[in-house]
């Protein structure tokens, strides 16, 4: 037939009639398949006539969970804004919050259940049905349970939608091997140290808005943005609070500080001990509070008496005078001082003692329950909707750290390293089933090789996620979850952001801003996925709620609310609150419990490894437009900050022949080279022994088409593991790097 | 009658479809009516072809239509390539599914060719860009709307289905306008990605076929 046959001529071809018959055959079978179109008479729209405001959004571009509304035009989400009714973030959201729109419409998002018909780590995906996927997951996981016991499964969860499956695997299936990144690679140490000292986890409950001094250890607000938190901080500064920032780097907060303590990294505890010792020796601590509420104060003061200003000055590489100045400033303004507990605190492997020191300093100043001090807002009560716990005892019995009698202060779950080591060695028992839910351990957990070894020895790997993050490349079955803009999952409660303002409480629930269903994907929510899995694994009788809607309504019912009522109230229920001030906490300056477990009962400074010659310590932090994987592939956010410049001291740079903007790579003490490159930021604002970069860059997963290979992945350079002895959580800042430019390794002068 | 029996045979032995081709065509010619195939049917066929490969619709009659088209167009090399990868293989479906997933759903190193117009038309390469909204406005002007409120309007199968609806209603001017304003601006870029990155001949043949039926005619 002629090459330049036209469409019209083609249609006239007689033999094609044959195709008509066959065609009717092949469409007949499809008769039940719904057509994507309906007839609908045309009405001319006004320009913005169809833009609706959807209420009830709760952000999850980070964990702070600001309340949102969505501007929805014709089913398309065009813009996210803070919910004007919010008494928390108010009408404001951050850059990442705004960028959520681009997550929703990212073409790389997971769409269908997929089976890996290639290899783990080098997958070949085949789209399969939910039935096939769930049957396979259930069969394989059940086989692991039958052969190795429930403890043969490990779960790596992250995010609010992962809570339901996580508790299913822990309490119903019965595995203790739950590695929550938010505990073991982030805030678990802080929570456990504060519980051991003040008998409460601190969250970030310091009343900065009403403080006379704000004391930040590594906190870099402005670069690190959580809206209501930053509002408190800025209100405090606006009201004239003095700001003390302890950081080896001239961070955004340091730029606003009255006192920038340019501390040598790893030595913070020595600094805190010297402050406390100075206050005790000079009698400038809050005697009334300590006498009334302190426990073991004598042992404590004796135990820290070696920590003189000069002792710490030498260790911390800062003037003794500055330590004294900070101590006196805190004392002069006590008790209205915010000693910030931090959030990501898994730094050096000596972190429990540092966090204990912060809690003790808070107590020493009596900065508890008072304006500007350590105060938690009084939030409202809501109901519960969780799994029963038929296997919780079994899980407890098989907890690796309990079997080994280690890490008595481990946060809930099991220390990640113990899970990984058990999986790789098979001792004390085999771990053969991996369930990942929203967590990317390839990038959150140091020691990538070991993580990959753990994954490779599994009988079965299943991953549930929204985006194709690095971990998804190792899945046998990969399941697509609806995003935070398309699902119900969390009831969020709190108070007005300024604790001294009009006392109010709020209750909101995450509700979909746009429909979770569409013809071109089959994403599901975590309640549905978990329930289907539970039924197929034989745990159907324990299912507590049938759907995410039922779960949300059940929790809301505890406050006499419902989804319907919340929608009527523009997404947020606000009610009168209660005065949060006046609560007194006991302070365990010396902890018998910690001493009995074989650790120092008085806060103690433990030195950390020094950089080898020619290397500097790698530290990392936040950028205002990024939160790890969740934002790594976001076009708007990547456009704002496409890579993470590596901070280098200007004098060192000069000696090394590096200029601002030079393209470089990094190599660490173990000879591990970054797989990608970035640029140098030459600045006097960093110590010579320290290198800094923002975390959350350089993904290796090419399916993240926007983020792949952009900037350097700090985690890939964190090969030397520090483990905090009390908690078993990771320390990530004991790794050291040199620069590489044009293939040539450049040592960093001391 | 004999013709239907032949289909049944092929349904159970899809491997042999193309070898039966000559017989098939001759059988068909015997029972040929005067009805001719319509453009609406072709658009629907093409829309269907872009959906996930499944034994539910990918049977002998489907391939016989495809084969007829290719034969009529004289695309012998394509016919041969398809024959090798599909009909001479016992396990032809899974490679096709893997290829569909890689090209259109998720893949390593990257989802090759997301089948949505705005990925190619908007600067940021996202789904549901302004051009997608414009396509939806066009649907509405013609008295149609998508069933699902969150359906992304410019998915290739939707656009082809919509063209079928226009053809069915005899709106040839609108059909041409939709092709010119909404379909052709992105389709060649989509096609190019598949021709360049495809690892299985099927989708290359298919996008060329779509191109043939949608390209501008002088």
Description:
The complex is a heterodimer of chains A (750) and B (218). Helices cover 32% and strands 17% of the residues of chain A. The mean pLDDT of chain A is 93. Chain A has 750 residues and is α/β, with parallel strands linked by helices. The radius of gyration of chain A is 28 Å and the shape is globular. In chain A, strands 20, 21, 22, 23, 24, 27 and 28 form a seven-stranded mixed sheet that branches. Chain A has a six-stranded mixed sheet with strand order 6-5-15-14-13-7, with helices on one face. Chain A has a four-stranded parallel sheet with strand order 10-9-8-12, with helices on both faces. In chain A, helix 4 packs across helix 19, helix 8 packs parallel to helix 13 (351-364) and helix 11 packs across helix 12. Chain B is mainly alpha-helical and 218 residues long. Chain B is globular and about 45 Å long. Chain B starts with a helix and ends with a helix. At the A-B interface, helix 1, helix 2, strand 1 and strand 6 of A face helix 2, helix 3, helix 4, helix 6 and helix 8 of B. Strand 1 of chain A pairs antiparallel with strand 1 (144-146) of chain B.
């Amino acid at each position: 037939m002629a090459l330049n046959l036209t469409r019209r001529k083609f249609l006239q071809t007689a033999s094609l009639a044959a195709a008509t018959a066959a065609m009717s055959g092949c469409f007949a079978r499809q008769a039940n398949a719904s057509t994507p179109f309906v007839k609908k008479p045309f009405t001319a729209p006004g320009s913005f006539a169809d833009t609706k405001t959807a209420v009830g959004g709760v952000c999850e571009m980070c964990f702070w969970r600001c309340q949102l509304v969505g501007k929805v035009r014709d089913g398309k989400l065009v813009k996210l804004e803070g919910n004007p009714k919010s008494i928390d973030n108010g009408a404001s959201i951050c850059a990442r919050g705004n960028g959520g729109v681009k997550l929703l419409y990212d073409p790389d998002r997971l769409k269908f259940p997929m089976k890996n018909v290639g290899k783990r780590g080098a997958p070949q995906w085949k789209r399969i049905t939910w039935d096939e996927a769930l049957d396979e997951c259930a069969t394989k996981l059940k086989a692991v349970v039958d052969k190795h016991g429930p403890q043969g499964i490990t779960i790596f969860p992250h995010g609010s939608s992962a809570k339901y499956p996580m508790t299913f695997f822990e309490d119903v299936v019965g595995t203790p091997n739950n590695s929550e990144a938010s505990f073991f690679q982030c805030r678990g140490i802080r929570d456990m140290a504060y519980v051991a000292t003040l008998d409460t986890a601190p969250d970030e409950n310091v009343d900065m808005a009403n403080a006379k001094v704000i004391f930040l250890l590594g906190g870099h607000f402005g670069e690190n943005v959580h809206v209501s938190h930053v509002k408190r901080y800025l209100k405090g500064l606006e009201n004239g609070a003095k700001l003390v920032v302890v950081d080896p780097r001239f961070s955004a907060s340091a730029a606003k500080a009255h006192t920038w303590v340019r501390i040598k990294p790893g030595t913070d505890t020595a600094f805190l001990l010297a402050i406390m010792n100075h206050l005790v020796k000079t009698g400038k601590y809050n005697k009334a509070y300590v006498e009334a509420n302190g426990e073991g104060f004598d042992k404590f003061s004796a135990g820290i008496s070696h920590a003189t200003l000069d002792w710490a000055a030498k260790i911390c590489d800062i003037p003794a005078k500055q330590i004294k100045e900070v101590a006196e400033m805190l004392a002069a303004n006590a008790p209205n001082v915010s000693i910030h507990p931090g959030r990501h605190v898994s730094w050096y492997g000596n972190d429990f003692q540092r966090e204990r020191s912060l809690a003790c300093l808070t107590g020493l100043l009596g900065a508890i329950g008072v304006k500007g001090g350590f105060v938690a807002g009084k939030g409202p009560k809501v109901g519960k909707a969780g799994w029963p716990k038929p296997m919780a005892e079994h899980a407890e019995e098989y907890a690796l750290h309990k079997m080994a009698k280690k890490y008595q202060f481990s946060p809930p779950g099991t220390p990640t390293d113990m899970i990984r080591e058990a999986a790789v060695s098979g001792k004390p028992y085999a771990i053969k089933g991996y369930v990942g839910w929203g967590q990317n351990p390839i990038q959150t957990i140091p020691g990538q090789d070991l993580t990959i070894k753990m994954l490779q020895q599994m009988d079965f790997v299943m991953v549930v996620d929204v985006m194709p993050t690095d971990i998804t490349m190792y899945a046998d079955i990969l399941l697509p979850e609806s995003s935070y803009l398309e699902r119900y999952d969390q009831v969020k409660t709190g108070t007005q952001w300024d604790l001294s303002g009009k006392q109010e409480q709020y209750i909101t629930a995450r509700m979909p801003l746009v429909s979770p269903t569409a013809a071109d994907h089959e994403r599901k929510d975590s309640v549905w996925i978990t329930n289907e899995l539970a039924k197929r694994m034989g745990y159907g009788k324990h299912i507590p709620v049938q759907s995410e809607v039922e779960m949300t309504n059940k929790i809301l019912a505890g406050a006499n609310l419902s989804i319907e009522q919340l929608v009527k109230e523009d997404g947020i229920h606000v009610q009168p609150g209660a005065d949060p001030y006046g609560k007194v906490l006991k302070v365990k300056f010396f902890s018998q419990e910690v001493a009995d477990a074989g650790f120092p009962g008085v806060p103690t400074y433990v030195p950390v490894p020094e950089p080898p010659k020619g290397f500097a310590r790698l530290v990392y932090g936040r950028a205002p437009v990024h939160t790890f994987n969740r934002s790594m592939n976001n076009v708007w956010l990547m456009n704002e900050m496409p890579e993470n410049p590596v901070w280098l001291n200007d004098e060192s740079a000069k000696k090394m022949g590096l200029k601002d903007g030079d393209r470089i790579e990094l190599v660490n003490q173990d000879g591990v080279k970054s797989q990608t490159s970035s640029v140098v930021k030459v600045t006097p604002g960093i110590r010579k022994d320290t290198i800094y970069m923002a975390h959350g860059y350089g993904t290796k997963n090419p399916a993240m088409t926007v983020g792949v290979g952009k900037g350097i992945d700090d985690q890939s350079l964190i090969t030397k593991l520090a483990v905090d002895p009390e908690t078993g959580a990771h320390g990530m800042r004991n790794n050291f790097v040199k620069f590489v430019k044009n293939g040539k390794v450049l040592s960093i002068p001391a | 009658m004999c013709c239907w029996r032949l289909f049944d045979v092929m349904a159970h032995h899809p491997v042999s479809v193309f070898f039966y081709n000559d017989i098939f065509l001759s059988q068909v010619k015997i029972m040929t009516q005067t009805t001719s195939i319509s453009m609406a049917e072709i658009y629907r066929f093409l829309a269907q072809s872009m959906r996930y490969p499944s034994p539910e619709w990918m049977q002998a009659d489907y391939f016989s239509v495809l084969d007829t088209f290719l034969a009529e167009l004289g695309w012998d090399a394509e016919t041969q390539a398809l024959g090798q990868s599909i009909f001479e293989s016992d396990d032809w479906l899974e490679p096709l599914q893997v290829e569909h997933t890689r090209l259109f759903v998720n893949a390593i190193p990257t989802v090759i060719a997301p089948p949505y117009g705005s990925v190619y038309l908007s600067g940021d390469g996202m789904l549901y860009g302004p051009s997608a909204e414009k396509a939806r406005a066009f649907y509405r002007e013609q008295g149609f709307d998508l069933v699902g409120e969150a359906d992304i309007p410019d998915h290739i199968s939707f656009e082809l289905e919509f063209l079928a609806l226009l053809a069915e209603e005899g709106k040839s001017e609108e059909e041409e306008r939709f092709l010119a304003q909404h379909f052709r601006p992105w389709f060649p870029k989509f096609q190019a990605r598949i021709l360049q990155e495809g690892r299985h001949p099927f989708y290359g043949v298919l996008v060329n076929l779509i191109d043939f039926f949608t390209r501008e005619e002088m």
